[in-house]
Amino acid sequence: MEVERFEALVAEALDSIPPAFQRYLDNVAVVIEAWPRPYQMARVGLGPGSLLLGLYEGVPRTRRPAAMNLSLPDKITIFQGPIEIVVPGDGPARDEAIRHEVRRVVLHEVAHHFGFGEERLRELGY
Length: 126
Description:
- This protein is α+β, with helices and mostly antiparallel strands.
- It has a single domain (3-123), classed as Zincin-like (2-Layer Sandwich), CATH 3.30.2010.
- It contains six helices and three strands; from the N terminus they run ααβαββααα.
- The chain has a three-stranded mixed sheet with strand order 1-3-2.
- The longest helix has 23 residues, at 91-113.
- The two termini are 23 Å apart.
């Protein structure tokens, strides 16, 4: 998939977040990378051969002190290559499946920003 199309899918997923939650994402940078770097894989305990679809780096809102207003932005990285690997098929059906997977990954990483852990996100289907 073209990078521009993938970027548009990430933007669409972010736009689908209700405004009541979007206002708390003002200090979150969302970036797209082709593949995770080794240090990113290590940060979440994944080794070679594993796939990392997205990564949240920051302090969840539920753990922030009130005086943390002047900090660097949190960062959400969405990895295009691994997402394309986990979505089989081709043609328009695959494009729609990638769209669905991008939205799932974006919401998963945004949920980390709001303090959700991996176990709870699995329970919710993310």
